[in-house]
Amino acid sequence: MSLKPRVNDKDHIQGNGSADVTIVEYGDYQCPHCGAAHPILKKMMAELGSQIRFVFRNFPLSEMHEYARPAALAAEAAAEQGKFWEMHDAIYENQSSLSTRLFMDLAERLGLDVDNFKSALQDQSVDEKVEGDFESGMMSGVNGTPTFFVNGEKFDGGAEDLVRMLHEN
């Protein structure tokens, strides 16, 4: 399966924007496998970030994980203040204690304007971003998390396999 739509200016992009290798992760903030992949991906970006364009798209599995969607909304609400990646990392680093209260605490810790953060959580554009990511995952054949795409093609493997493949190339 290939990635639909291609990476675009609505995506959250980290690393080298003009890199030859683009990795897209569809993730769920409450998924234990995504939580386990997070430190591996952080290390990968620290080592290879200058050679990779890394994109995160929300794929909350809401039926299994009650805080997956609220966490995705919190990350997107933080993005409104330019702190998507900081919130993304903070949520994964506190995955064992996800709650509405935690998202507010993280917003304060990250120095966000908390009133703006709260109103962004209710904002239709934030909701549409999460929904749009989820729908793009469905169109791209994502059926679990984390799912990775490398240069637009579905990658058959986990974060460790991804890092191994990058080191080999």
Q: How would you state the average pLDDT, rounded?
A: 96
The structural class is alpha+beta
Number of strands: 5
Low-confidence stretches: none
Estimated radius of gyration: 15 Å
Strand order across the largest sheet: 1-3-2-4-5
- DSSP strand (E) fraction? 5-15%
SS field, number of helical segments: 7
In N-to-C order, the SSE pattern is EEHEHHHHHEEH
Largest sheet: 5 strands, mixed
* Shape label: globular
Helical content, roughly? 40-55%
Please give the alpha-carbon distance between the first and last residues.
Answer: 22 Å
Could you name the key traits of this structure?
single chain, 169 residues, 5-stranded mixed β-sheet, 15% strand
Structural commentary:
The structure is a single chain. With 169 residues, the protein is α+β, with helices and mostly antiparallel strands. The protein has 7 helices and 5 strands. The protein has helices at residues 32-48, 68-79, 84-93, 100-109, 114-121, 124-139, 159-168, and strands at residues 12-15, 21-27, 52-58, 147-150, 153-155. It has a 5-stranded mixed sheet with strand order 1-3-2-4-5. Helix 2 (68-79) runs antiparallel to helix 3. The protein is globular. The two termini are 22 Å apart. The mean pLDDT is 96.
